[in-house]
Amino acid sequence: MGRNTKALVLVILLLLAALVWAPWLDEHEIHDQILQEKAKTDGTIDSDGELICDYSVMWFPFGRWVASCEGGYFVTFYGNVMP
């Protein structure tokens, strides 16, 4: 393998590692986004506006996993929420 090929492989591996880790995803921001978008529909907040069960945000490859009492959501490294 030539020097340029090794450098290219290293750059690709670093980019892949960054996507797997996704350090730009802020867990507090994700929590607030899911709470605002999904809390009324998934039963996290009752009809009186009282919080029944809070969300827990955890690292997951290529994004974050947001767990609630009833299920969870996957937030991709580019910010898309998947039910």
Question: What fraction of the residues are assigned to beta strands by DSSP?
Answer: 15-25%
| Shape assignment | rod-shaped
Query: Major β-sheet, in short?
Result: 4 strands, antiparallel
- The stretches of 5 or more residues where confidence is low (pLDDT under 50) are none
Instruction: Figure out the total of helices.
Output: 2
Mean pLDDT, rounded to whole units? 94
Tell me briefly what this model is:
By secondary structure, the protein is an alpha+beta fold. The protein is built from two helices and four strands; from the N terminus they run H-H-E-E-E-E.
Helices and strands in order, then pairings?
Layout: H1 3-21, H2 27-42, E1 56-60, E2 63-67, E3 72-76, E4 81-82
Antiparallel strand pairs: 1-2, 2-3, 3-4
Protein described:
- Helix content is 42%, strand content 20%.
- It is α+β, with helices and mostly antiparallel strands and 83 residues long.
- The protein has one domain (3-82).
- The protein is rod-shaped and about 65 Å long.
- The protein starts with a helix and ends with a strand.
- 11% of the residues are buried.
